[in-house]
Specification:
42% of the residues lie in helices and 21% in strands. With 627 residues, the protein is α+β, with helices and mostly antiparallel strands. It has a five-stranded mixed beta sheet with strand order 2-3-5-4-6. Strands 8-12-13-14 form a four-stranded antiparallel beta sheet, with no helix packed on it. β2 (123-125) and β3 (128-132) form a beta hairpin. It is extended, with a radius of gyration of 38 Å. 17% of the residues are buried.
């Protein structure tokens, strides 16, 4: 959350920087189109750049570790109970409320626009749609739709207005308007974003004025039209208005001489400011000790042939990738690091390590904490017989020891008498283990805890259960790994629902009042199966597309070709009449077949109502048991 607010603050600062540069350097220049792209690029750069971090590594001398910390006097501060305001929560709430309010206003503006356009007669000319209103509304355009009231203007004035709005439509100025509204919603608290919006809308009017006067013979009449439109104050939001409050500036820009091309150097002045922003705020320096060996750091060692790959709170993503590549290259073991989380100091607070050796074995280690993780390592060793061992080591204690061999379990594997053997969660012995086909074994875990050895074997058939069914142990959904480690001797009851594909297991040590009277979930009814197919309709020919305009004033040649294509289309449709009659007969037969199916569906719906009531009763009983 802190990172999000920090990036929002950075984006707000960049928006202010782009606007200030435009106001003092580019506002009075006639590079209207270039200014449009500059302003839009400034908005998107302001949002994207704060999320890009550039890292540099600085090598430093190792810190001496022989300092006697016990000689430093220390005191325990006395904590006083006091009421503290969670300002971060206050900021989140304020930002959320403001964003929601502006979103509601945005939705209301769309509704108002839709009310103006809905149900009106549309005249299509070329690529534009024209709507002639009777209401006293200022002329505007919305994408390719141009709206005006022809009764309020003379023919020459209407011509000027339409030329102006066509420029808005052809250059997709509505997209710019919507983008500015979106940024005003996201950065509503930043006053510069509202000035930015005003600058963009004003520049769009400059573009439309400049382009429209190129197609008009009387530039003075166009300016008089601008002055006349100022009398209309009824404007529709989310649109490009012919009327703007700064009419004087528009007339001034119309009569201003074109800026000299060499003035375009002003656009480059924003680049040093962006470079300074990157160096000040987007550069992350990582300090490393010169004697640090990231590839194989020894955390602890149990033999001379053991390599330990250390992972600490300061291990970077690049170092994790480097360790995985080294282990895979040296031992053929695939190491996957995932679900990494870091705090504001870029320290690891969570990580998942998955070890794989082909299809022979796999194991996960999940580390998650509200604080930075404690150092641990992946230890890889070989014994005198060449057997590969993988340990997770932490504070000189070995946990989750895994042994990987080519045949997974062989007759020559040394197993002590007190070794406990579990096959698919059920306690077994060496004789049963030797009977297993190695090709049917999915995983073998060899755990050594408190000087006792434990072997857990999972077959492929048992491992398939998790992929096909949802597993619940004591009403809590679990994964295949937890099912594998479950001692079957502790199971009191198992309910298998083949239709719902669920397995519910109740263990003996579960703490609840009525273990033996635990309710069994109801079985949902089976829906009827449609054993007949819907008749396929005959392929219809594609209707020809009418040319633009109308047959009288449009392209007569194109309309003549269109008439010929329509004749061919009618002929093809006439040939399809026998097929259509046959299709109608098939549909009538299909309707007869659907009648018994519909009756079965009604019965199924009644059963579903009963099932829903049973589920409510089951859930109520489960809630009582849990409470």
């Amino acid at each position: 959350m802190e990172t999000l607010f920090l990036n929002i603050a950075k984006s707000s600062g960049l928006i202010a920087m782009f606007y200030i540069a435009y106001y003092f350097l580019l506002r009075k220049e006639t590079f209207f189109t270039a200014n449009r792209w500059y302003l839009l690029a400034g908005l998107f750069t302001s949002v994207i750049l704060p999320w890009i971090i550039f890292t540099t590594i600085v090598w430093v001398e190792p810190t001496p570790n022989n300092f006697d910390w016990s000689k430093i006097p220390h005191s325990v501060p006395v904590q006083k109970e006091s009421f503290e305001i969670n300002w971060q929560l206050v900021l989140v709430a304020a930002y959320g409320i403001g964003t929601v309010l502006f979103l509601i206003q945005f939705a209301f503006d769309f509704y108002s626009l839709n009310r103006v356009l809905k149900g009106k007669t549309i005249q299509q000319h070329a690529d534009h749609k024209f709507i002639d209103l009777k209401e006293n509304v200022a002329p505007f355009s919305y994408f390719n739709t141009i709206v005006y009231n022809s009764t309020l203007y003379t023919q020459s004035e209407l011509e000027s207005i339409l030329e102006h709005e066509k420029v808005h439509s052809e250059q997709y100025h509505t997209i710019d308007v919507l983008i500015t509204r979106l940024f005003c919603i996201l950065f509503w608290f930043n006053p510069f974003v509202w000035l930015y919006k005003k600058a963009i809308l004003q520049n769009l009017e400059f573009i439309a004025d400049s382009e429209a006067t190129k197609n008009l013979s009387d530039k003075k009449a166009y300016q008089l039209t601008l002055l006349k439109i100022t009398a209309h104050e009824n404007c529709v939001v989310l649109t490009n208005h012919f009327y703007q409050s700064l009419i004087k500036k528009r007339i001034v820009m119309l009569n201003k001489n074109q800026s000299k091309k060499w003035n375009s150097w002003k656009y480059v002045l924003v680049v040093p400011a962006l470079v300074a922003f990157v160096f000040l705020f987007q550069m992350e320096v990582i300090a490393k000790e010169k004697n640090q060996i990231p590839k194989a750091e020894k955390l602890t060692s149990t033999s001379n042939d053991e390599d330990v790959y250390k992972i600490t709170k300061n291990t970077t993503e690049e170092e994790l990738k480097e360790k995985a590549e080294t282990i895979n290259k040296s031992y053929g073991i695939t190491v996957l690091f995932s679900n990494t989380k870091r705090n504001s100091n870029n320290e690891l607070t969570a990580i998942t390590v998955e070890l794989k050796k082909g299809k022979e074995i796999s194991s996960n280690r999940n580390v998650a904490s509200s604080e930075a993780i404690k150092p641990f390592g992946i230890a890889i060793s070989k014994d005198s017989k060449g057997m590969l061992g993988i340990d997770f080591v932490e504070e000189d204690k070995s946990v989750d020891k895994l042994v990987v061999v080519n045949n997974i379990v062989s007759a020559d594997t040394p197993i002590s008498d007190d070794t406990q053997i579990y096959i698919n969660g059920s306690k077994s012995d060496k004789v049963e283990m030797d009977k297993l086909d190695p090709n049917e074994i999915a995983t073998v875990n060899v755990n050594k805890n408190n000087e006792k050895q434990e072997i857990r074997i999972i077959t492929k058939k048992f491992a398939k259960i998790g992929s096909e069914n949802a597993i619940y142990i004591n009403d809590e959904k679990v994964d295949q790994n937890e099912l594998d480690n479950l001692d079957q001797g502790t199971i009191e009851r198992m309910d298998v629902n083949k239709e719902g594909k669920t397995i519910r297991i109740i263990t003996k040590n579960r703490t609840y009042n009525q273990d033996k009277n635990m309710p069994v979930p109801p079985v949902p009814p089976t829906p009827p199966v449609m054993k007949f197919k819907t008749p396929a309709a005959p392929p219809f020919p594609k209707a020809p597309k009418a040319p633009k305009g109308d047959p009288i004033n449009g392209d007569k040649k194109a309309w003549k070709e269109f008439d010929k294509k329509m004749e061919d289309y009618d002929a093809k449709m006439k040939k399809l009449e026998p097929q259509m009659e046959a299709f109608d007969k098939q549909m009538a037969e299909f309707d007869k077949q659907m009648e018994p199916f519909n009756e079965q569906m009604e019965i199924f719906e009644e059963k579903m109502k009963v099932y829903e009531k049973q589920m409510e009763e089951y859930q109520s009983k489960m809630d009582q048991e849990n409470n």
